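[#protein-structures] MJ: dropping Ribose-5-phosphate isomerase B here for a structure pass
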Amino acid sequence: MRIHIATDHAGFELKNELVKHLQDAGHEVIDHGAHEYEPLDDYPSFCIDCGKGVVADPGSLGVVIGGSGNGEQIAANKVDGVRAALVWNEDTARLARAHNDANVISIGFRQHDLDYCFHLVDLFIAEPFSGDERHVRRISQIAAFEAERR
Ligand SMILES: O=C(CO)[C@H](O)[C@H](O)COP(=O)(O)O
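AK: finished. structure tokens for Ribose-5-phosphate isomerase B:
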């Protein structure tokens, strides 16, 4: 699978390690930055670029990383077609895919250690969307709202 990834300074170490982890698992990774550690950099443009990458690349998934993951999720979700979920435990990782068909996972690297972040991302990638009618219906309502605004 192709995985788009982005981070600010707070997730820079995780991003670099996660790129290797995902590549070792056979995924192709597209890195939307930050490309260098800059302690005062700003997450929005990296996360928006990552979201655009996912939307333009059907079947791909995205990972956005920050200190909490909150702002990164907010920024990615500004891109029409992105469904970014802040994931912080096993249930939220699986439900993001199964119920929400989330195409972007947001992770706060100041909240977990490296291995647990890997674990959450792996769970997210492995879980399929359930396709249950009620979830399809609700996701369609969000997509309809996005379409109305265009
Ligand atoms: O998680 C984040 C946004 O939700 C950022 O990574 C976090 O706010 C960065 O903090 P600082 O500039 O103090 O290092």
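MJ: nice. The chain has one domain: 2-149.
AK: one more thing. The chain has six helices and five strands.
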